[in-house]
TrEMBL record, chain A:
This is ABC transporter permease subunit. It comes from the Bacteria. The lineage of its organism: Bacteria, Pseudomonadati, Pseudomonadota, Alphaproteobacteria, Hyphomicrobiales. The keyword Lipoprotein does not apply. It is a multi-pass membrane protein. Belongs to the binding-protein-dependent transport system permease family. HisMQ subfamily. It is found in: Cell inner membrane; Cell membrane. The chain crosses the membrane at residues 48-69, 93-110, 116-135, 142-165, 177-202, 223-241, 253-273, 316-334, 346-366. GO terms for cellular component: ATP-binding cassette (ABC) transporter complex. Keywords: Cell membrane, Membrane, Transmembrane, Transmembrane helix, Transport.
UniProtKB/TrEMBL annotation, chain B:
Belongs to the ABC transporter superfamily. It comes from Rhodoplanes serenus. Coiled coil: none annotated. It comes from the Bacteria. One of its GO terms (molecular function) is ATP hydrolysis activity. Residues 22-256 form the ABC transporter domain. This is ATP-binding cassette domain-containing protein. It holds the Pfam family ABC_tran. The keyword Hydrolase does not apply. InterPro entries: AAA+_ATPase (IPR003593), ABC_ATPase_HisP-typ (IPR030679), ABC_transporter-like_ATP-bd (IPR003439), ABC_transporter-like_CS (IPR017871), MetN_ABC_transporter-like (IPR050086), P-loop_NTPase (IPR027417). Keywords: ATP-binding, Nucleotide-binding, Transport.
C-alpha cells in the first residue's frame, strides 16, 4: 500500500512534531432563500409535491376557518340564531347550540343537584393521571397505587352513591356524556394494564396450563371485533343469567371493554418483556431475587418504560373505541351529541354538522395530547438512554 | 491442595457445614442430545482460588452456571456450602444468596443508579434497612475504587467501571463464594487491568473464588489451582506453577502452546 500511495523517497513512518491546529468550522450556507431551495424545491418532483400540498391547504383551510370561526354563530337561545338571515346569509357552525347543550354533553342526564360529584371525579382523575404520567413526579409508586387502587373505589362510591354517607344513589342509566366516556376509557386502562401484564407473563410462563389459558384468551379476544364483544356482554349475557342477577348495563359494557383492552395490552407488554436481555434475569437470579422480585424490581420497570409509547397508543385507540358502547345503548359523549342534534328547538341545516364537528374536535384534542405525550416519552427514551 | 485450603480455613469462621465450599461430583449435562458436561468432579475448599480455563465451548461457563443453578443439570450432584443444588426453588435461592456471580456482559440494571444496583438485593433479599445497605454499598464501591460514581447510571460508566460495580454489587450480598464468568472478555484492553487488580485484591481477602478466564497472568498470580477443561470434561487440575511449566496432558500442552505462543 505504501508503495502505491507514497512516492518512493517518502518514509513510511510518521511522528507528529506539532499538534494539529484547532480551526473554527467554515460557515454553512444560510439565508431564507437557501432554506427554500433545499427544503421546498430541491428537485422538480419535490417542488411539484410542495405546490400540491399548498393547493390542498388553500382548498381546505379557508372554508374550514370560515365555517368554524368567521361565519359561526356564538350567541343565541334557539334555532332562529342559526338560520340564514340578512346579517348572516350562510351561517357557519352553530356554537350557540353547543353552548346550550354543553352540560348535557358533559354530564348526560346525571341529576343536576349531584353534578358536583362528577366534577370531583374529573378532578381526581386529572390528578391521578398527571401523577402517573409525569415520569419525574415524586413518590410515583404512591401515584400508581392511587390510580389503580384508590381512584376506582372512590370514584365508584362517589358516582353511584352511598346513602349511608349522605350520597344519594344515582342509577348508571342516568350517567352520560363525557362522564361515561371517561369512565369507560379509564376502567379500560385501569383494568387492562395489570391484566395485560399478567396475561403477558402467563403467555411466557413455563407452566403449560397458564400459558395455554393466556394464549387462548389473547388470541380469542383479538380475533373478535370489539362490537361483537360488547353485543355478547350486553345481549347474550342476560339470556343465560336470571334477570335479578343480571348485572348493570354499564357494568356489562365495562367488562367487555376491559376484556378487549386487556388482550391488546398483553401483546404490547409482551413486546416490552421480550426486549429485556436474558442477562438481566440471570443477574437478578444470581443475586437471589426470586421470580416475583426479579419481575417487579428489574424486568417490569425496564419493560414498561420502553413500552410507554405503545401503551399510550393503545390508550388512544381504546379512547376512540369507547364510542362503540353507543351501540349497546349507553349514553357516551357521542350519544349525547346524537340526542341533542335532533332537538327540534335547534333544528337548523348546520346543527348536525356542528355537533359532529364538536365531537371531532373533542376526540382530536384528547388523542392529540396523548400522542404528544407518547412522542415526548419516545424522544426521552431515545436521548441516549441515560436512565 | 489440602494444605493451602487448611491454612486459609483457619481464618474463615466455621459454619454449620464445615465441609468444602463447593463439592461437584459426577456432574453430567446435556443440551438436548448434545452432551456439554461429562463426569465433572471438583472439590473447592473454603478460601481456595480456582481458575478454570480451556478452549471456547469446553463447558467452563456452563459448569459455573450450574453451581448457582442458572443452568439445570441432569446427573450428578453439586453441594454449595452444605446446601445441595436441586430443583427446589427455595434451596436454589438459598444457594444464590451465598454465591456471588460476575458476568462477562456486566448485566448491571440500567434503570437503577450504581448505588441502587448495589443495595437492591441486600434490601429486598436480606431485608437490610436501606441506610445500612447504602453504607455497606459505599464501602464496597470504595473498595473497587469508584465511590464517586455512586449516583450515576450504568450507561454513564466505562466498561471497566461497570464491571467493578458488578463486583461490588455481588460483594454487597456478603457471599461466601464469588464466581467470575470471563469478567474481562468484553472489555477494551486498557480496562482489563483495573478489573483484574480488583479481583486480585479480593483474592487477598481470602474470598473463595472460581474464575473462568483467559488471563493467564492472573491465574499465575492468584490461583491456588488451575482447572483445564476440554469438550465438557476436566482434563487436568494442577497448581499454577506445575500447570504452566509442566503440563501433563497432551491437550493441555496444545492449548498452552496456542495461547502463550
Amino acid at each position: 500500500m505504501t508503495d502505491l500511495a507514497m512516492p518512493a523517497h517518502k518514509s513510511v513512518a510518521f511522528v507528529r512534531t506539532t499538534p494539529a491546529p484547532r480551526v473554527p468550522r467554515p460557515p454553512l450556507p444560510g439565508g431564507p432563500l437557501h432554506w427554500v431551495r433545499t427544503n421546498l424545491f430541491p428537485t422538480p418532483f419535490n417542488g411539484l409535491l410542495t405546490l400540491l400540498v399548498v393547493l390542498l391547504f388553500v382548498w381546505t383551510v379557508p372554508p374550514l376557518v370560515r365555517f368554524l370561526f368567521i361565519d359561526a354563530v356564538w350567541m343565541g337561545t334557539s334555532r332562529d340564531a342559526c338560520l340564514p338571515s340578512a346579517a348572516n346569509p350562510d351561517p357557519g357552525a352553530c356554537w350557540a347550540f353547543v353552548r346550550t347543550w354543553f352540560s348535557f354533553f358533559i354530564y348526560g342526564p346525571y341529576p343536576m343537584a349531584e353534578r358536583w360529584r362528577v366534577d370531583v371525579f374529573f378532578a381526581l382523575l386529572a390528578f391521578g393521571t398527571a401523577w402517573l404520567l409525569w415520569l419525574d413526579a415524586p413518590r410515583r409508586g404512591l401515584g400508581a397505587a392511587f390510580f389503580f387502587l384508590v381512584l376506582p373505589v372512590v370514584s365508584f362510591v362517589l358516582l353511584s352513591g352511598f346513602p349511608a354517607i349522605g350520597l344519594p344513589t344515582v342509577d348508571t342509566a342516568s350517567w352520560g356524556g363525557l362522564l361515561v366516556t371517561l369512565v369507560v376509557a379509564s376502567v379500560g386502562i385501569v383494568v387492562s394494564l395489570p391484566a395485560g401484564i399478567l396475561l403477558a407473563l402467563g403467555r411466557r410462563s413455563t407452566m403449560p396450563a397458564v400459558r395455554l389459558f393466556s394464549i387462548g384468551f389473547i388470541e380469542l379476544v383479538r380475533g373478535v371485533p370489539l362490537i361483537t364483544v360488547l353485543f355478547m356482554a350486553s345481549v347474550m349475557l342476560p339470556l343465560f343469567v336470571p334477570p335479578a342477577w343480571s348485572p348493570d348495563k354499564l357494568l356489562r359494557a365495562l367488562v367487555g371493554i376491559a376484556i378487549f383492552a386487556s388482550a391488546y395490552m398483553a401483546e404490547v407488554v409482551r413486546a416490552g418483556l421480550q426486549s429485556i436481555p436474558k442477562g438481566q434475569y440471570e443477574a437478578a437470579n444470581a443475586l437471589g431475587l426470586g421470580y416475583w422480585r426479579t419481575l417487579g424490581l428489574v424486568v417490569l420497570p425496564q419493560a414498561l418504560r420502553v413500552t410507554i409509547p405503545n401503551i399510550v397508543n393503545n390508550t388512544i385507540a381504546l379512547f376512540k373505541d369507547t364510542t362503540l358502547v353507543f351501540f349497546v345503548g349507553i349514553f357516551d359523549f357521542l350519544r349525547t351529541i346524537e340526542i341533542a342534534r335532533v332537538d327540534p328547538n335547534w333544528a337548523t341545516p348546520v346543527t348536525s354538522t356542528t355537533g359532529y364537528a364538536f365531537a371531532a374536535i373533542f376526540y382530536f384534542v384528547a388523542c392529540h395530547f396523548m400522542s404528544r405525550y407518547a412522542t415526548g416519552i419516545e424522544r426521552r427514551l431515545a436521548a441516549g438512554d441515560r436512565r | 491442595m489440602s494444605s493451602t485450603a487448611e491454612t486459609i480455613a483457619r481464618d474463615t469462621p466455621a459454619t454449620a457445614a464445615d465441609g468444602p465450599a463447593v463439592l461437584i461430583s459426577g456432574l453430567y449435562k446435556w443440551y438436548g442430545e448434545f452432551q456439554v458436561l461429562a463426569d465433572v468432579n471438583l472439590e473447592v475448599a473454603r478460601g481456595e482460588r480456582i481458575v478454570i480455563c480451556g478452549p471456547s465451548g469446553s463447558g467452563k461457563s456452563t459448569l459455573i452456571r450450574c453451581i448457582n443453578a442458572l443452568e439445570p443439570f441432569q446427573r450428578g450432584s453439586i453441594v454449595v456450602d452444605g446446601v445441595s443444588v436441586t430443583d427446589d426453588l427455595k434451596r436454589i435461592d438459598e444457594v444464590r444468596r451465598e454465591v456471588g456471580m460476575v458476568f462477562q456482559q456486566f448485566n448491571l440494571f440500567p434503570h437503577l443508579t450504581v448505588l441502587e444496583n448495589c443495595t437492591l438485593a441486600p434490601i429486598h433479599v436480606r431485608k437490610m434497612p436501606r441506610k445500612e445497605a447504602e453504607e455497606i454499598a459505599m464501602r464496597y464501591l470504595a473498595r473497587v475504587r469508584i465511590p464517586e460514581q455512586a449516583h450515576k447510571y450504568p450507561a454513564q460508566l466505562s466498561g471497566g467501571q461497570q464491571q467493578r460495580v458488578a463486583i461490588a454489587r455481588s460483594l454487597c450480598m456478603a457471599p461466601k463464594i464469588m464466581m467470575f464468568d470471563e469478567p474481562t472478555s468484553a472489555l477494551d484492553p486498557e480496562m482489563v487491568k483495573e478489573v483484574l487488580d480488583t479481583m486480585v485484591s479480593l483474592a487477598e481477602t481470602g474470598m473463595t473464588m472460581l474464575c473462568v478466564t483467559h488471563e493467564m497472568g492472573f491465574a499465575r498470580q492468584v490461583a491456588d489451582r488451575v482447572v483445564f477443561m476440554d469438550e465438557g470434561q476436566i482434563v487436568e487440575i494442577n497448581t499454577p506453577a506445575e500447570f504452566f511449566t509442566n503440563p501433563r496432558h497432551e491437550r493441555t500442552r496444545t492449548f498452552l502452546g496456542q495461547i502463550l505462543g
